[in-house]
Design a protein that fits this description.
alpha/beta; Alkaline Phosphatase, subunit A; Arylsulfatase, C-terminal domain; 3 domains; eight-stranded mixed β-sheet; 15% strand
Length: 492
């Protein structure tokens, strides 16, 4: 994407030989509509990727939030595009981060959950699965990676590095000690052990941002990839007292039609993330890099049930209902993305790698499958990818808490689990969740029924069967592990 100042007529003549290339056609049409003055970039676009931790879909202003304040994040959405149907690669952090960095679904990279093991009472698990503290081989029936990317996988930083990018990674990694092609790596804004935890550090967002803007300054003359993965708003829920006080005062006069008790401390943590986004964007503008910089903001999964609400979405972090996997996402790229636009195309974390590869001119990895598809055309307002299927797979168990106990123990009415062995497909407006525990599925129209209150499996049996068949074909193709051995300790 080497842009230069030329006349419209010149552009028309130059693009004639490539107009037969389908994947470039939409981009070329867009370029013809852009004023020549903005076509000044002499290098591929910079890419800034900002990832919040445990930020719920409804926690940002551009998705209707009124108590939490996210003016800088909302400005990204206003000046660019809201991706309203964006999904995390998994319902919790490690699998999503692996999906982002490899472009592969969970059955291929094998990070299904943080720690790689089921969580909950073993006696309530119908199937034998990898379980912490179990020496019995029965409980290690298939591979499940513990917070680590296989070093043989090609990462998103390595892909961009092949196109001449310098890459900086700041914040939570949760994928092992391997640098995975990043030139600069830091967990808290200073060089150090990438695996160290900084949850609870009320200043960590500021430290990360200091390092991020320094990275931009140092690499402004070359294409860069900046990966900022905030520790906030993950528990523990702690923040600066002065900012907490601001939201406590707001709460005194705040009136809400719902019944949710808004958390001023959580609000202050989100405030820190929003401030970080504003500082990074301001630095990019200061250096005159904004036209040639793509900024994406998203979350690694839905909000935690004890910290925030995902309403009107059902359930929360850890579940495969919308509240666990649909995440707030927006993108701004002034030279390319039309301000104030919105896309309802279903996208997911594995799509980042091929998208960044396309806009940078980098080649995709040849040593591993790439499950994602580029959504570069979506950012340009094209109606593509609308009918493709996206998938999730989780072969383990995850206990629930509070209102996030959404699934029963097998053979009982006891609501205990956030997730049990299951696979999910979304295609078009419809989403099907299949539970191996119960050998049954649920079907929802997530366009019309965002809260997933109306199971359509019995009303639309043919559609449910078709989606289930496509899902099972994907399970077979990816060689996804499916629990089948009964747990001898199962005693509900």
């Amino acid at each position: 994407m080497n842009l230069k100042i030329i006349s419209v007529a010149q552009r028309q003549e130059e693009i004639k030989p490539i107009m037969n290339s389908c994947h470039l056609r939409a981009f070329v049409v867009l370029l013809l509509s852009i004023p020549s003055a903005v076509l000044t970039a002499a290098q591929p676009p910079n890419i800034v990727f900002v990832l919040a931790d445990d930020l719920g879909y409804s926690d940002v202003g551009f998705n209707g939030q009124r108590f939490y304040e996210t003016p800088n994040i909302d400005a990204l959405a206003r000046d660019g595009m809201i991706l309203s149907d964006f999904y995390s690669g998994g319902p919790n952090c490690a699998p999503t981060r692996a999906c982002i960095n490899t472009g592969m679904y969970t059955p291929r990279h094998k990070l299904f959950t943080p720690g790689g093991r089921a969580k909950g009472s073993v006696k309530l698990m119908r199937f034998a699965v990898p379980t912490k503290g179990q020496d019995n081989p029965l409980y290690n029936t298939f591979d499940s990676m513990p917070n680590k990317i296989d070093g043989n996988h090609t990462s998103i930083a390595e892909v961009l590095g092949s196109a001449g990018y310098v890459s900086g990674r700041f914040g939570k990694w949760h994928l092992g000690e391997d640098l995975q092609g990043f030139t600069v790596s830091s967990a808290n804004g200073k060089p150090g052990v990438v695996g160290k935890r900084f949850y609870g550090d009320i200043d960590v967002a500021e430290k990360l941002t200091d390092a991020a803007v320094q990275f931009i300054d140092q690499n402004k003359e070359k294409p860069f990839f900046l990966y900022v993965a905030h520790w906030d708003v993950h528990s523990p829920i702690r923040a600066r007292k002065s900012v907490v006080a601001k939201y406590k005062k707001k709460l005194e006069t705040y009136r809400d039609e719902g019944d949710w008790e808004w958390n001023p401390t959580y609000a202050a943590m989100l405030d820190a993330v929003d401030t970080s986004v504003g500082r990074i964007r301001a630095k990019i503008k200061q250096l005159g890099l904004d036209d040639n910089t793509l900024i994406i903001f998203t979350s690694d999964n839905g909000g935690a049930s004890f910290a925030t609400t995902n309403r009107p979405l059902h359930a929360a972090k850890g579940a495969f209902f919308e509240g666990g996997i649909r995440v707030p996402t927006c993108a701004v790229w002034p030279a390319i993305i039309k301000p104030g636009t919105r896309s309802g195309t279903a996208l997911t974390s594995v799509d980042f790698l091929p998208t960044f590869a396309e806009i940078s001119g980098a080649a995709l990895p040849t040593n591993q499958p790439v499950d994602g598809q580029s959504f570069a055309d979506v950012l340009q307002g094209q109606t593509v990818l609308q009918n493709r299927a996206i998938f999730w797979h989780y072969p383990l168990y995850l206990s629930g808490a509070g209102y996030n106990k959404v699934l029963p123990v097998y053979g009982t009415d006891q609501m205990h689990w956030r997730a049990v062995p299951s696979s999910v497909i979304r295609k078009g407006d419809y989403k099907l969740i299949y539970y191996y525990e119960y050998d049954e599925y649920k079907l929802f129209n997530v366009r019309d029924d965002l809260s997933e209150k109306h199971d359509l499996a019995q009303e639309m049996p043919q559609r449910a069967k078709q989606l289930h068949a496509e899902l099972m074909a994907w399970i077979k193709d990816t060689k996804a592990p499916v629990p089948s051995k009964n747990n001898p300790k199962f005693a509900p």
